[in-house]
Amino acid sequence: MKSILVAEDETAIREFVVINLERAGYTVTEAENGAVALEKYEKANGAIDIAILDIMMPEKDGLQVCKELRKRNGDLGIIMLSARTQEMDKVSGLMLGADDYITKPFSPTELVARVDALYRRLAIAEMRLENNFKEEIRSGNFVLNLKNHSLMKDGRLIELTQVEFQIMEFFFSNPGRPLDRSDILKYVWGEAYYGEEKIVDVNIRRLRMKIEDVPSSPKYIITVWGLGYKWETAGNTSSSH
Asked: Which domains does the chain have, with CATH numbers?
């Protein structure tokens, strides 16, 4: 465990990331471009916990690598590195399944805090799996399985990323209650999260595409203007098993 793949074509930035992560106790595999990153991920044979991907890379860019990795492993932690000007790329990365992004330039403290927070989430999920954690939460025609991180809608499986799952878990635990973006941020990304609240909005957009009958006219994940979102199902009843 605690193994990270760092894909960054700028040597100085890559070395900066590697040194600081190794100091924090992580084992790091380096890749100088996207194609090498995918090769090294394959060679690691499932031993990588988190991938840190620069968006702008030769061979294959970070967005392509993110898409490929997410296809291969729904539980892999993925963090994108982006320049301040790459606003649309950040959103694209999140829509493709990244868990978080860090904007350059960043401090060692921010880097390690983001990685630690993501790693903690992955470790909790792993612990549930190992302990045969069987609890399910039901809400209307949805069933959220806390062991295998799956969501069923009318008996149909909906695959979720780690972040999506945690947002749904928060919703299911608070049916019908308006949840502030900052509350969602704290619950999913942790108290010490450095990033922006819009990461919540992008993940909500992605969830709506997966669970709503008509994503542009949501009836389950409702926007509460000026605040955040709330989870609505018929009768608003949730129960655990």
From this structure: 3-128 (3.40.50.2300), 133-240 (1.10.10.10)
C-alpha 100/C-alpha 113 separation (Å) is: 12
| Residue where the block lists tokens 């973006």 | 181
Return the bridge partners of 7, or none. Answer: 31, 53
- pTM to 2 decimal places: 0.76
Q: Once rounded to an integer, what is the mean pLDDT over residues 30-51?
A: 94
Percent of the chain with pLDDT over 70: 90
Q: Which of 187, 185, 69 is nearest to 124 (CA)?
A: 187
- Which value, in Å, is the radius of gyration of the alpha carbons in the chain? 18
Report the residue count for the chain.
241
Contact 139, 231 (CB under 8 A): yes
Cα of 219 vs its chain's centroid, Å: 23
Rounded (5°) CA angle 109-33-162: 55
- Please calculate the CA angle 95-59-104 and round it to the nearest 5 degrees: 55
CA 45 to CA 163: how far, in whole Å? 23
